[in-house]
Design a protein that fits this description.
heterodimer, A: elongated
């Protein structure tokens, strides 16, 4: 079992605290989405895990060991930090060969990851001729090179085309299904919702949430029921009798807040309200996330002196 | 983690960048061509030193060697590639040592070849004026030239690690070599003999009159190089990548 363990991790740059007493665990066998606004400390945390930056205090370990003590670390941890880390004048194949050589990774792995990430046909071209999406794929290829049990990707969907996004989603799901530990940062909520099982949410360097994605959404977003009817008066009257209130949306549909679709359906049927549409509006990750950051802003807004 | 795979990786980095390979060729071309030109110049100067005349191409050649040493390191700092390199090899001291070997060995080898070619080319031009050169002196000149070029390349690598920039390194070293040492060196004397290039180039002369002998001079250059490397290693170890 190889998990990433972050314990009381703090990193200060001068007086600015980029990571503030962070504690969480990323477990194997699932995709953990790493969320937070720009500058929340996601990338810094990843660099601290990789031993690239030194923590001010606290520890970050992979499988119980600091990254720096791993012999041939690419065989244990694969990371994509920055799509621009390959030298523009090198070919993709040479870039991967250099990395493979340093960790005694078999040369055939270079060909395998080039195939897997779909850039084998351009592998002999210099990286500076690549589009952003191709560089991103090369970065992912480098992360997968050592067949690592821990995969850490910083904004991997940046610059990918729609096909690339679908491919990435399947790749992440597969890596988790194979029992690997997968940490993926993103600021795209719908994208994260499509692959993550678990969430770690940061705000200004601190931990805001660490829980399964479903729980996160259910705890944050009030369920709603969406109704479309030709008889708005009957709808409002029927809802009022059951203590519900309906709000009209832009498209002529009505939303009933704090309600479950089972109750509303039964009530409207009993009242004989004609229905064109009745659906449950489950919360999205985006709604839950915005709700969290809104409350957070409320708590952390500076107090003004009267 | 072993040293050999890291060294192999660093050697592959040099070989897979065309610009670095071209810079090594430039060391050979500049040293040989300028020495050959010097070979057909006027030899009536009272300070005429046939060995240095034959190896004078080292002055432009060292610029290419410095560019090689600086670029080998600064290519790591393009687009934060250093993070990927240090994630692959977290022992930074080991990584830096491998990098320096990957700089030193090719420059020394190309330096030997260049100095030998320069000597042959220049002697063809100098003719009888170079007849006083002994075999030992010429061998010392060739080996010394290769060592000197290697030390200057490593000096540049050390500074590039310290500045994390190839441009800053070249902007420091090249004016220093072309102007400061060249101009002040001839005016002053004494202390300037201990500048890295002037000290190291004593080995390229048939005769020497300063405080430093051929090997003493190279030792002084080596001290400068060591200082730059220690400063670079310190920056690499202590700073966040």
């Amino acid at each position: 079992m190889t998990s990433i363990d972050v314990r009381n991790l703090t990193k200060e740059y001068g007086t600015r605290r980029a990571v503030d007493d962070l504690t969480f665990t990323v477990s194997p066998g699932r995709v953990t989405g790493f969320l937070g606004p720009n500058g929340a400390g996601k990338s810094t945390t990843m660099r601290l895990v990789l031993g690239l930056d030194r923590p001010t205090s606290g520890t970050a370990t992979v499988g119980g060991r600091p990254y720096g003590t791993l012999a041939e670390p690419l065989r244990h941890v694969g990371a994509l930090l920055d799509a621009d880390s390959a030298h523009g004048s090198r070919t993709a194949r040479d870039h991967l060969r250099v990395l493979a050589a340093s960790n005694r990774i078999a040369p055939r792995r270079v060909e395998e990851v080039l195939e897997e990430t779909g850039i084998a046909s351009v592998a002999r071209r210099r990286v500076k001729t690549y589009s952003m999406g191709m560089r991103q794929r090369l970065g992912i290829a480098a992360a997968l090179l050592g067949d690592p049990e821990v995969v850490m990707l910083d904004e991997p969907s940046n610059g990918l085309d729609p096909e690339g996004i679908v491919w990435l989603r399947a790749l992440l799901r597969r890596l988790a299904a194979e029992g690997r530990t997968v940490l993926v940062s993103s600021h795209l909520m719908n994208e994260t919702a499509s692959f993550a099982d678990h969430l770690v949410v940061l705000g200004r360097g601190s931990l805001l949430a660490d829980l399964p994605m479903r729980d996160f959404i259910d705890a944050r977003v009030r369920p709603r029921v969406r109704v479309r009817t030709p008889d708005a008066t009957a709808l409002k009257a029927a809802l009022e009798r059951h203590g519900h209130d309906a709000v009209e949306g832009d498209d002529g549909s009505w939303s009933v807040h704090h309600a479950r679709v089972d109750d509303i359906g039964r009530a409207l049927s009993d009242a004989g309200v004609p229905l064109l549409e009745l659906s449950s509006d489950a919360g999205t990750l985006e709604q839950a996330y915005l709700d969290l950051t809104a409350t957070e802003a409320e708590f952390s807004a500076p107090h003004q002196e009267a | 983690m072993y040293f050999a795979p890291v060294l192999r990786s660093e050697a592959l980095k040099v070989l897979s960048l065309r610009s670095l390979c071209a810079t090594l060729l430039a060391v050979l071309a500049a040293t040989t061509a300028f020495s050959a030109l010097a070979g057909v110049s006027d030899t009536s100067d009272p300070d005429f030193d046939p060995l240095f005349m034959a190896l004078s191409g080292v002055t432009p050649g060292q610029i290419a060697a410095i560019a090689f040493g600086a670029t080998a390191v600064s290519s790591e700092y393009q687009g934060n590639g250093i993070r990927l390199s240090l994630a692959a090899v977290p022992r930074r001291g080991r990584w830096f040592a491998a990098k320096l070997v990957a700089v030193a060995v090719p420059v020394f080898a190309v330096g030997l070849l260049s100095a030998f070619a320069a000597l042959v080319a220049a002697r063809a031009g100098l003719g009888a004026a170079a007849d006083g050169l002994g075999v030992g002196e010429q061998a010392r000149g060739v080996v010394g030239c290769a060592l000197y070029l290697m030390l200057m390349a490593l000096l540049a690598s050390g500074l590039a690690t310290l500045f994390r920039s190839g441009a800053a390194t070249l902007a420091t070293l090249i004016p220093f070599l072309l102007i400061v040492s060249f101009v002040i060196g001839d005016v002053a004397g004494g202390a300037t003999d201990f500048l890295p290039d002037r000290a190291g180039q004593v080995v390229l002369h048939q005769t020497h009159d300063g405080l430093l002998g051929p090997w003493g001079g190279l030792a002084v250059t080596a001290l400068w190089t060591a200082a730059a490397l220690v400063a670079g290693a310190w920056r690499l170890r202590t700073r966040d990548a």
